[in-house]
Amino acid sequence: MIVIGSCALALLGHKPRRPVACIDLIGTQADIEGLRAALGERIVAEEKLRDYRHAFVLKEGEPFRRVELDFEQTESDRMLAGLCPRRGTLLGLSLQVPSLELLYLLKRSQANIGEYYGKAVGDILHIKPLIGTLGETDLAFYKMRKKECAERRGGKQRFALSISNDEFFRKSGHMREYVHDDLHETVAFTPGQPLFRKCKRDLSLAKIDTDMFEALSFEDRLRMVQEEFMVIGLERFFIPNRSIPRAEVYARGMHKTIRELFVGYFQDFCIDHVVELSTPPPFDFVERFLTAEREGRIRRTDPAPPPPGAYRQIQDHLQKRNFDAARQLAERLAERPGGETDFDAALLLGIAHWYGKDMISAERAFRRCVALQPADKDALFFLGATLCRNHAFAEAADVLREAARRGAQRIELYVSLGSACEALGSPADAADAYNAALRMQPDNPALRAKAAKLRSAAGIRQQAV
Questions:
Q1: 269 domain residue, yes or no
Q2: Which of 292, 15, 228, 386 lies closest to 236, judged by CA?
Q3: For 146-167, how does the pLDDT look when each residue is reduced to its tens digit (9 = 90+)?
Q4: What CATH number did the domain enclosing 384 receive?
Q5: Three-state SS for 316?
Q6: How far lies 7's CA from each of 11, 23, 182, in Å?
């Protein structure tokens, strides 16, 4: 079996960027039985996370909370096994350990996938400064791994860039208060001369010409995309909420642009150079914007009011499983000019992300809703259930209990609470949650069996104490 992620980094003598709670492994389906036997009484629960991923939840007091095994065995999995001669030991398990370069390429292969982007890029920023030269064999592995990620989890591209600027703005799902190009002129490294103009054959189209881009110096290529990060940061984050610090405005604009607005070549360029791009420009672009705003040098757009029945349209899109259309419309309504947020649209935006299986964005949207209305039972339920999906089990349990206290009555609430309590090693609490779900759906045999099993486990544990 091959250990990856933060545990592998620690075994190579480097400090992970966050506390390590889970051992991530790559192996075969036969390794499930081997792990079960090796971990023995340390295991308190097992979970089937996907068709190709199995998890063991460990007792309280163990150095790790979980052990997760990916047994898909793709072509790149088999390639990786031959590239890891080094071995290390965790929980008494002898494991193959990838090099720093391979750990970097594992993260890089996931970074173009929307749901993995945030965690992958955070790890890339941590690992890339540590790596050496990438060899041809390493790059062959990366090419195969990235291809597999794109085929299995890439999803459908939201839009092409060969469309008009106006159509791009509509499809990107944001209501603008100021003319986009005026912001570019204001924050450009050379004021009034934004670099994107050197990379377009037709200024009316959103498309950046790659040949013209590559003709720029490397420094100007970095600057050109940084100008876009600044503008997106201002439009999407600072103008609606002017309390956000400049560095955070830049960081949010960078991640929004790379993750959702750039595609193909330009997304790859940004991820490959994210270490260099993560440092904000040396000048105060926020102050430049504020000065231009005070002096009336930035033209305002005419904000369009929400169309009649817009919320019903979002709900119709959700029912028809048109999740991208629901998300785009909800996002436009949620981010209102003047810094106000439409709570109902923000909640629908989170639900659209939820059904679209983008749990990172769903968590962000539901946190926003709870910040706006801390006592809203629906916002609390969805945030708690999302946290459970994102393996933040302790916080999930607290939020779900608060949702129930506020009057939320959903079977999914108690099923999620039961899962969180199981993961936290609290079988009695998990059984109570599943029993609450059973009271709402008494003919569910799976829930009944799970509750009975956990009650039994809790009883055994209490007698041993």
A1: yes
A2: 228
A3: 999 888 765 545 445 554 555 5
A4: 1.25.40.10
A5: helix
A6: 6, 6, 47
